[in-house]
Amino acid sequence: MTSTGPNMNGIVVKPATRQSIRKRCAFTLIELLVVISIIALLVGILLPALGAARRSARNAVCMSNIRQMTIGLVSYSDSNKGYLPAAKAPANASSLNRRILWQVSIWSYITSDGIDLDDIDAPYEYLAGTAFECPSADDQLGGYSTGDHTQNGYGLNISPLGSLGVGDFTSKTGLYSSKIDRELEYKRADLVVSPSSTLLLTDDLSYLVEYWHRGYTNHLQLGLLGAGNGMLAVINRHGGKGWNIAKFDGSASSTPFEEVPGSTNQLHYSATSALSPGLLLDAPHNIVDPIGKMYWVGRESR
Question: Which DSSP symbol is given to 274?
Answer without folding.
Answer: P
